[in-house]
Amino acid sequence: MDQLLKSFGIEWKILIWQVINFAVVFFILSRFLYKPLKKAIHDREKKISASLDAADKLKKKSKEMEDEFKQKMADQRKEIEEMHVKARAANEKLKSELRAQAEEESKRMITEAKTRAEEEKKEIMVTLESEVKMLAIALAGKVLEKEIDEAKEKELMKSAISALKSK
């Protein structure tokens, strides 16, 4: 076997030293380079994972805030619409109240005008009645003065009545 190894150009002593050197280098690299590098990579993975988790949380919070904002906007729109409807109703109510007041005032004014007209009519009738009485007395006086016959008296009465009607 020794010959076989020599035919390939391998020497035992060098091979053993190479294996020992490889083991020492492997031990040193694994102890001082591989473990710290592995730890750094692991720490980096944790940081990236934490950053991704934080980003997800921020994304969720952002989504929640957006939903909350949309809900508030919808509530405000609804509230504004309700206020608009209430304002329209109040406006219509005010219009109907003002219309009713105007109609009531109009009726009151018409009633007052009718009442005044009736009162004036009564006053005119009283005045007319007193004038008719005065004319009747004057007519009777004239009739007695002239001693007029009945036909003449009826004619004078008719003329007095027509004179009163023309006034």
UniProtKB/TrEMBL annotation:
One of its GO terms (molecular function) is proton-transporting ATP synthase activity, rotational mechanism. One of its GO terms (cellular component) is proton-transporting ATP synthase complex. Residues 48-123 form a coiled coil. Its main location: membrane. Signal peptide: none annotated. The chain crosses the membrane at residues 14-34. Keywords: ATP synthesis, Cell membrane, CF(0), Coiled coil, Hydrogen ion transport, Ion transport, Membrane, Transmembrane, Transmembrane helix, Transport. It is found in: Cell membrane; Endomembrane system. It is a single-pass membrane protein. It comes from the Bacteria. The keyword Mitochondrion does not apply. CDD domains: ATP-synt_Fo_b (cd06503). It holds the Pfam family ATP-synt_B. HAMAP family: ATP_synth_b_bprime. Component of the F(0) channel, it forms part of the peripheral stalk, linking F(1) to F(0). F(1)F(0) ATP synthase produces ATP from ADP in the presence of a proton or sodium gradient. F-type ATPases consist of two structural domains, F(1) containing the extramembraneous catalytic core and F(0) containing the membrane proton channel, linked together by a central stalk and a peripheral stalk. During catalysis, ATP synthesis in the catalytic domain of F(1) is coupled via a rotary mechanism of the central stalk subunits to proton translocation. PANTHER family: ATP SYNTHASE SUBUNIT B', CHLOROPLASTIC (PTHR33445:SF2). Belongs to the ATPase B chain family. F-type ATPases have 2 components, F(1) - the catalytic core - and F(0) - the membrane proton channel. F(1) has five subunits: alpha(3), beta(3), gamma(1), delta(1), epsilon(1). F(0) has three main subunits: a(1), b(2) and c(10-14). The alpha and beta chains form an alternating ring which encloses part of the gamma chain. F(1) is attached to F(0) by a central stalk formed by the gamma and epsilon chains, while a peripheral stalk is formed by the delta and b chains. This is ATP synthase subunit b. It comes from Candidatus Jacksonbacteria bacterium RIFCSPLOWO2_02_FULL_44_20.
